[in-house]
Amino acid sequence: MNVNHILVVGSGVMGRGIAYSAALGGYQVTLCDISQSAIENAKSEIGHLFLKAVDSERLTSEKAEHFSSKLNYSTELEKSASSANFVIEAVPEVMSIKKEIFEKLDQYTSTETILATNTSTMSPTEIGSYTNRADKIIAMHFFNPVHKMKLVEIIKGLETSEETLRVTQEIAHAMGKETVGVNEFPGFVTSRISSLVGNEAFNMLMEGVGSPEEIDKAIELGLNYPMGPFKLGDLVGLDTRLKNLEYLHKTLGEKYRPSPLLVKYVKAGRLGRKSGKGVYNYT
């Protein structure tokens, strides 16, 4: 299968990062969202990524212009999907939203088009059941920030074909990523570990074991993590972290019960960098 046009659905932090990386991989890319303001924001942020790449001499201005020209922006899902031969969905981690998107994509795209979900916890088998092409459904777990993080976890569903896996791996490699194949199980590999560490950090903060700065420093220097759990949680979004924990608690049991303090932060609107304040203050 020859992939030349990738559609990315959802223009949030992950979606625009995936779109940017796909364009650098040489693909024609359409970034689609229902919100025009979200599209304009994503276009601005992607432009900023190209400028930074030129300033740091990772790209020449000519190459930045070339790759930038491969990006298109749209609020019309049906029109965008009709010409795509690979789709990466990057909407919030809510199964009802993903169900709606995949039902539409199943109608709007060619029957040969592969549909991938960017998810850190959810089942590609279940998502495949919302379509008439379970063999062409697969999960790609990208990491934030997408343009810097090298790994993509690739997860087959029960009926995902080997050809779908092969094409997905090729696309990830063209985007400059390393891949690992993971057997489908809630949370895969990285989300299970990251959720446990982040949740325990909140429990320690609640218990008064140390300040956020002290806990982050201990994890970074003592365990050689590149980023402490509070810094990472603020970057990913504490609401996203909470959704992941709620899903893992439901599917894997008590050890993933969300920390009461994390729940309190999310209820207070302290979601991390995107809201200006999480564990740390970014205003």
UniProtKB/TrEMBL annotation:
Pfam families, per the entry: 3HCDH, 3HCDH_N
Site feature (Important for catalytic activity) residues: 141
Keyword S-adenosyl-L-methionine attached: no
GO-annotated biological processes: fatty acid metabolic process
Residue ranges of domain 3-hydroxyacyl-CoA dehydrogenase NAD binding in the record: 6-184
Residues that coordinate or bind NAD(+): 10-15, 33, 93, 98, 120, 144, 274
Superkingdom, natural source: Bacteria
Domain 3-hydroxyacyl-CoA dehydrogenase C-terminal, chain residue ranges per copy: 187-282
Gene Ontology molecular-function annotations: NAD+ binding; oxidoreductase activity, acting on the CH-OH group of donors, NAD or NADP as acceptor
Pathway assigned in UniProt: Lipid metabolism; butanoate metabolism
Keywords: NAD, Oxidoreductase
Similarity field: Belongs to the 3-hydroxyacyl-CoA dehydrogenase family.
Name of the molecule in the record: 3-hydroxybutyryl-CoA dehydrogenase
Originating organism: Fictibacillus arsenicus
